């Protein structure tokens, strides 16, 4: 594995899993009022476009990392939209 | 501009600006207790590695979008670490 691939893989892993601590905290505390839903709407748009970009470029690392990010950020968005109603 | 470039540019813009609504909300409400600092620590690591990746590949769009993300996510991390002490 070249240094580029190592750095790219680490970058992809960190940016993909970054939302997990926020999902865990939201589920544990059931409190999300300080979290901005607009951040997650824009993030979902962003990683959604990166996933499309990956398909256009036939680039599987971009498709996989951003596809997982899209799922995780959507989970957080659903938590935000449902918790804020309570 | 090809469709790839349009989609890639939109993806880069959305993922770069996504944290701005959270920074705005944190400054306006001065409340961040529901926001996970670990999310922003991991995000800073991730976009930091993407910035290094951009330098290794001499890819200016990756350097610029992730460099700005690194600055913005660091701002949010500083807000989190200082607000949580109050």
TrEMBL record, chains A, B:
The chain crosses the membrane at residues 6-24, 36-56, 62-81. Pfam families: MtN3_slv. Keywords: Membrane, Transmembrane, Transmembrane helix. Coiled coil: none annotated. Gene3D superfamilies: 1.20.1280.290. This is SemiSWEET transporter. It comes from Flavobacterium litorale.
